[in-house]
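Reopening: structure tokens for the 2-oxoglutaric acid complex, inputs below.
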Amino acid sequence: MGSDFQAIPIIDISAFLEKIDDPRMGDDKEVLEVIRQLDDACKEAGFFYVKGHGIPDSLVKEVKDATRKFFNLPYEEKVKIKMTSASGHRGYQEVAENITLGKPDMHEAIDCYSEMEPGKYGALGQPLEGSNLWPDYPSNFKVVMEEYICLLKDLSRKIMRGIALALGGPPNAFEGDRAGDSFWVMRLLGYPVLSDIPEMQRTDTGCGAHTDYGLLTLVNQDDEINALQVRNRSGEWISAPPIPCTFVCNIGDMLKIWSNGLYESTLHRVINNSPKYRVSVAFFYEPNFDAAVEPFDFYTGVPLDVHFDVTAKDLHSAVPMTRWMRREMQESLMLPMKLLIYINQQNYAAVD
Ligand SMILES: O=C(O)CCC(=O)C(=O)O
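Re-run output (same inputs, fresh job):
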């Protein structure tokens, strides 16, 4: 749907989390109010902040501190965990290696994925099989990140329960075959000060305009640096500044499809004009690797005009999995990926 929102709503989910395991949660007044706010936000902006989320602030900060320390290391240290096909495309990516809309992005990153055992998803999964690459320094890096991933997965599952209720489904609609074994992704991102990047390499964009391909993204932004922007229906870029003790969340393309077009996966971008190096940690809660790409049968209100006559050749994406799929698989894209690409194409067509 989408709207001309001028600000991103803030939703306090604490009352909802308190009742998360109560089978009668759907009758509770406070829970219903949180669900109403989630429903409005997913329809209108496709973005919202969550507060009262229960993740300790000390851990949220530790994750950003460890990320900053890693990106501060000399180049030779960082490339020790370089992203390669041997690690299933996990690991360190240099500034300008990530391409969005044909333009290099001014960020460096470590990409982590849910670890995949050999053979789990046959030939389709094979290129993403592997384990995450963790640096030796800072020495607590792996422990901190693994604890964070575990808590963010759980928080995402809980928020998806609220979204399931908002769509009129059972609270566990996004569990089991849909996202009970989420193929999650985490990107640890560092945006250098633009003047520190050689002029030859420099563009004006930290991360080009894109939508996310999955269900729900939770971003842990650096304090005080205003760089994330979200595009409303009229094409205005609305700021999503960091707000202490919150995550900024957004809906991905798969949720748009599963909600039959009711919920919006909204274009966003990062422009770091600050004189400070910016760190952010984006956690992407995704469907199961082999989930069906079809709307829920309990929500069929708004028909989504989808057709499948697209090819992979001339498409762009900022997200690692779709980027990789497009590069490596070309014509052998399976139907679900074609659907996601179609949605992305529609979104990119709208970018100025
Ligand atoms: O750095 C951010 O604030 C957002 C990053 C983002 O949009 C992405 O990685 O998809």
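The pocket of 2-oxoglutaric acid is lined by residues 187, 189, 207, 212, 219, 221, 228, 268, 270, 280, 282, 318 (CB under 6 Å). Confidence is low (pLDDT under 50) at residues 304-339, 345-352. Marking as resolved unless the reporter disagrees.
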